[in-house]
Amino acid sequence: MLVTGANGAGKTNLLESLHVGTQGFSPRTRVDAQLVRLGCEGARIALGGDRAGRPLLLELTVHAQQGKRAKLNGAALRSVEQLRSEVATLVFTPDRLVVVKGGPAARRAYFDRSLARVLPARAALPLEYAAAVGQRNAALRRAGGGLSGREAVEPWTHQVAALGAALVAARLETLGLLGPVFAERADELGLAEAALGYTGVPPTVAELDARLERDLERGTTGAGPHLDDVTVTSGPRELRSFGSQGEQRLAVLSLLLAEAEVLAELRGVFPLVLLDDVLSELDALRRRTLAERIGAVGQAIVTATGADALPLEPAQLLEVTPGAVSAG
User: How far is Cα 138 from Cα 219, in angstroms, rounded to an integer?
Assistant: First the structure.
């Protein structure tokens, strides 16, 4: 599906609403109040479709006083986070380049979200590990300040080591699933010898105990997967430092396409793919290659300022004007 419209007409808002309605959060902001039109008390997103031939109805409401609430086929969900286990949505926006050119924290967050989608049974691992690190850090600060003994740190050291090892294993498995497909899609788009790597090893109790004095002094846990990184390379070059912005864009697109294919294989259902302003900085050959590839990854919605930006005939053409969406 191709969505066209002038700059500022609301194309990105349309994609944002689809992401919020299927994932429970915005790809652009974590401040829920920014999802509500100025002067209004709340907002509502209602989506209808089908999944594997069965009707799928999603509803999400945002209220300043009540927070967010979601329904699936008319039944209230315990939390909006449950939406993510029902529908997988992948999104590209221009600021997604931070996944490649940003710091390690951006990559950890991105690949931990991918982990949750491709390995749903271990989706809670990143949060569980982060909670354990937070508890250990709190124990370190109490012990370092003389408010408790060092023995209070020990249970959290074991917890951090166990959950950290499990998280590293899950991240490596995720990269093992994504890596080969990522390399293929990147090669199609002209990014040769692309690969994903992981820098870090599972933490151990012995390692954490050996650095206890430093951790007590600083009040933080100085080893573990909360400090690891994922490398995105093309041949010998790490694209964060030695890739052009065009290559970084191709890498992010290749990651999205790879995950879409992996999810389809694992779940048997293609994800919803949202591509915002993805064509404007690609040359004609890469636009055609991308258009052909996204036609094979399920339902994809692409925004552009004009219909001529997409080199292939879209299955559906929509035009956005301020406050309205119509068939093109």
Answer: 7
Locate 64 and state its tokens.
């300043």
Residues of the chain with CATH 3.40.50.300: 1-88+271-328
What does the block give as tokens for 201? 């090893």
Q: Which two tokens stand for residue 167?
A: 């998280």
Are residues 261 and 298 in contact, defined by beta-carbon separation less than 8 angstroms?
no
Which pairs from 94-99 meet CB under 8 Å and 24+ separation? 94/276, 94/277, 95/28, 96/252, 97/245, 97/248, 97/249, 97/252, 99/232, 99/252, 99/255
Beta strands in 166-315 (DSSP E): 194-199, 229-234, 237-238, 272-275, 300-304
- CATH node for 97-268: 1.20.1050.90
Sequence ranges of the chain with CATH classification 1.20.1050.90: 97-268
Q: Tens of pLDDT along the chain (328 residues)? A: 999 999 999 999 999 999 999 999 998 888 888 889 888 989 999 999 988 788 999 999 999 778 899 999 999 999 999 999 889 999 999 899 999 999 999 999 999 999 999 999 999 999 999 999 999 999 999 999 999 999 999 999 999 999 999 999 999 999 999 999 999 999 999 999 999 999 999 999 999 999 999 999 999 999 999 999 999 999 999 999 999 999 999 999 999 999 999 999 998 888 999 999 998 889 999 999 999 998 888 899 999 999 999 998 999 999 999 989 999 7
Q: Please name the amino acid found at residue 233.
A: T
Question: Alpha carbon of 173 to those of 116, 167, 179, 196: distances in Å?
Answer: 12, 10, 10, 12
E-strand spans in the chain?
2-4, 42-51, 54-63, 67-72, 75-76, 89-92, 194-199, 229-234, 237-238, 272-275, 300-304, 317-321, 324-327
* CA atoms within 13 A of residue 280's CA, in its CB half-sphere: 11
**What whole-number distance in Å separates Cα of residue 291 and Cα of residue 287?**
6
**pTM (2 decimals)?**
0.92
